[in-house]
């Protein structure tokens, strides 16, 4: 298994395709997606275009649905929710289809949506992602950071490093066997430097500071937690993510299922 990390969707190679791709947007889209599914949302459908989102949501009625819209860290006017994971309570979202668009995270998911298997990762569900990788042994994995409008982000990079760090321990493999590019090695080094104080890194990050200016300190605290949700968002069909339960797998498959 080789893991490649790309800082932004724009950095992903234009040709070639992995067996499995992972979208990462710690602040806050993939943290929010994992939280939505943990709270019982039926599925999360992602869009880059707000009009297409609204049209699809209207067609979904009368089945229960909610619109989540964020631009620049703030809620889109007229939408039900912004992109704060703290708003994603079971009372609000259980059994609803979530129609979601954010500045960067939903773009990362769209960039990789044609990959055979697509997952969404954040710090809060890192272990669920790593257990899936260990169990299914995909030969090539692309981890794709969302960044901010095409630029590098500390928070997505440290999450890629957290995934690699945990996988190294689980696979009992040397780094050269698992890291596919220099960006993956650098991400691991960043995680190993900050693993005991991830909140300080998120507060240092440019988007973390943007959120702090919006008084969203509690969002950063929530997003900085590791392995608190046993939830694995997996793409069921293009742009639609559901929860894949680790408990439904056959533990005997660990390490045997090539992808
Ligand atoms: C993004 O998509 O860039 C983020 O999720 C923005 C945010 O909600 O903070």
UniProtKB/TrEMBL annotation:
Family matches, as Pfam families: 2-ph_phosp (PF04029)
Instruction: Report a single Gene Ontology molecular function.
Output: sulfopyruvate decarboxylase activity
**EC number(s) recorded for this UniProt protein:** 3.1.3.71
Q: Does this UniProt record's set of keywords contain Hydrolase?
A: yes
Query: Could you tell me which InterPro entries the record lists for this protein?
Result: ComB-like, ComB-like_sf
Listed A to Z, the keywords are: Hydrolase, Magnesium
The answer to whether keyword Membrane applies is no
Per the entry, which co-factors are needed? Mg(2+)
Catalyzed reactions per annotation: (2R)-O-phospho-3-sulfolactate + H2O = (2R)-3-sulfolactate + phosphate
The entry sums up its family as follows:
Belongs to the ComB family.
Q: What is this protein called?
A: Probable 2-phosphosulfolactate phosphatase
- Name its species: Petrachloros mirabilis ULC683
């Amino acid at each position: 298994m080789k893991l490649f990390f790309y800082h932004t969707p724009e950095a992903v190679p234009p040709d070639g395709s992995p067996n499995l791709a992972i979208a990462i947007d710690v602040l806050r889209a993939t943290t929010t997606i994992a939280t939505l599914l943990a709270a019982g949302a039926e599925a999360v459908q992602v869009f880059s275009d707000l009009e297409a989102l609204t049209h699809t949501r209207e067609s979904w009625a009368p089945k229960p649905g909610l619109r989540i819209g964020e631009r620049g860290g703030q809620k889109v006017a007229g939408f039900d929710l912004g992109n704060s994971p703290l708003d994603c309570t079971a009372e609000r979202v259980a059994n609803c289809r979530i129609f979601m668009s954010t500045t960067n995270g939903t773009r990362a998911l769209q960039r990789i949506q044609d990959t055979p298997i697509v997952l969404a990762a954040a710090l809060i569900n890192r272990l669920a992602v790593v257990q899936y990788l260990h169990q299914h042994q995909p030969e090539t994995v692309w981890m794709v950071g969302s960044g901010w409008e095409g630029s590098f982000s500390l928070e997505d990079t440290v999450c890629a490093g957290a995934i690699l760090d945990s996988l190294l321990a689980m696979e009992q493999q040397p780094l050269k066997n698992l890291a596919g590019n220099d960006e993956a090695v650098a991400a691991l080094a960043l995680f190993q430097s900050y693993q005991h104080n991830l909140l300080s890194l998120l507060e240092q990050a440019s988007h973390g500071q943007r959120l702090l200016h919006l008084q969203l300190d509690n969002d950063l605290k929530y997003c900085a937690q590791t392995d608190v949700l046993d939830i694995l968002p997996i793409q069921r069909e293009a742009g639609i993510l559901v929860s894949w339960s680790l408990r439904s797998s056959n533990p005997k498959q660990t390490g045997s299922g090539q992808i």
